[in-house]
Amino acid sequence: MVNNIENAVKLLLHKYEVKANVELNLLPGWSFLNKELNDNDMPLLTWRLNRRFIELKKIVSDEVVENVSMLRFCSLGDPNIWSLEALIYREFDLCEFITGSRIAYIHATLTNGLAGNIIVKLENGTIGSVEIGVQAPAGKPLIERHEIIARRGVASDIVVDTQVPQSSIYTFTENGDMEYKDVDNELFGMDEFQVEWVRAAFQHQKDPTQSENLIKQHDHLSRLVESALKSNSNKLKVKVA
To answer: What share of residues in the chain are helix, strand, coil (percent, to 5)?
Structure first.
């Protein structure tokens, strides 16, 4: 998969005549958990390039929903791709990205590194419920839902009356059922996870000025993950330092 990502990034760099730093190691931030970054490592917050989350952030910042009181996030992944820590990293960043507020308190209950429920409180008073798990069947795309509940209005990244994310096209043939969900007009045949990664890597090559902010947020999220693990071990609410 990494080769496909690199090839797609190279195509965009060539198309838009962007000079690249080929030495950079551009990976999703959670890939660097429990590792010391070297000079060429760049932890990308790839999900921030996903249109669903960009629109949720805009709904909150433009006050389309007023006085957000609660977040209800759920994310279930393939254990061959995701770890529980990786999902915590991602979902915590989405809490902060969408609301524009930092996590202040964490209370986590995790089960054998396979699943967990986490309650967070943000500095602006918003409460978040984060359900995570890595027991999805092998090869299954990330099953997720992100819901915002406000004093006036609700918002969600999937259609309200569905249980799981939907595809754009379904075909039912004698050779079996197929689903298609292209989400980018230049990156066909790639799933959302791959598209996010390619777009984030390309954006960084085009504009590397956010390097310092990315590294700072990675360090912050790494501490949040550690706090969640500490909360689970001690069975206590943890105040984020």
So the answer is: 40, 30, 35
